[in-house]
Amino acid sequence: MDILYEIIKALWLLIPLYAANGFPVLVKGKVPIDFKKTWSDGKRIFGDGKTIEGFIIGILAGIFYGGILWILYPKFNSIAIYYGFELPYINPLNALILSFSALSGDLIGSFIKRRISLERGADAPILDQTNFILSATMIGLLFFKITVIMFLFMIIFTIIVHRITNIISYLIKLKSVPW
Ligand code: CTP
Ligand code: MG
Q1: Is the CB of 122 within 6 Å of ligand 1?
Q2: What atom of ligand 1 comes closest to residue 103's alpha carbon?
Q3: How far is the CA of 40 from the centre of ligand 1 (A)?
Q4: Angle between helices 148-171 and 127-140 (to 10 degrees)
Q5: CA-CA distance, 10 to 43, in Å (whole number)?
Q6: Does the CB atom of residue 28 touch ligand 1 within 6 A?
Q7: How many CB atoms lie within 10 A of CB 79?
Q8: Is residue 91 within 8 Å of 64, Cβ to Cβ?
């Protein structure tokens, strides 16, 4: 059962992270966060796929979902305590910090892609799907107990969810390729 509790704690943490990482994709902002500036290698710092609007919407979405989890916490955590574990105490403030870390990880991912000459939007399997979890976990460790099992679950679960959504998007013809 312990592993199930680790998974529930990880899913609780993933909610604000998915919000922060997912909402920017919906707004598709216009103002690039690097203001179209290039790095010393002549290539863009982050590229047109990372915008200020996206960053702000991501943070706001993370705070909003953090707020919902904060309201739900007493009820859900009392159930958890009944089973002998505790949920991570997410509130709007630490959700803001988590979202900021997640979006910064996403920026670092783009920074790396530009340095190895991958165009904006080019696929970088694993890196694309997990950069935000890596960075959010590093900062999240400051206020939450994130175990190795929770971390591994967040990474593997996210890769699987990403694969499944892409296959579904392909089947309903939203995407032309199933990856
Ligand atoms: N997006 C945004 N602002 C952000 C992050 C994402 O506006 N901070 C939007 C952009 O329209 C972006 C889309 O969400 O194209 C998908 O995000 P992502 O896959 O992370 O960016 P890519 O376009 O693939 O760019 P990169 O190659 O740099 O990852
Ligand atoms: Mg992409």
Answers
A1: yes
A2: 8
A3: 22
A4: 150
A5: 37
A6: yes
A7: 10
A8: no
Tokens linked to 97: 């910090």
Token reading at 150: 């929770």
- For the residues of 24-64, what is the DSSP string, one character each? HHHH--SSBTTTT-B-TTSSBSS-TTSBHHHHHHHHHHHHH
Segment 90-118, tens digit of pLDDT: 999 999 999 999 999 999 999 999 999 99
pTM above 0.90, yes or no: yes
Domain spans, the chain: 2-171
Helix axes 2-27, 127-140, angle to 10 degrees: 120
Distance 42 CA to ligand 2 centre (A): 21
Q: Which ligand is nearest to the CA of 113?
A: 1
pLDDT tens for 55-66 read 999 999 999 999
Task: Give whole-number Cα distances, 57 to 26, 60, 100, 133, in Å.
Answer: 9, 5, 11, 18
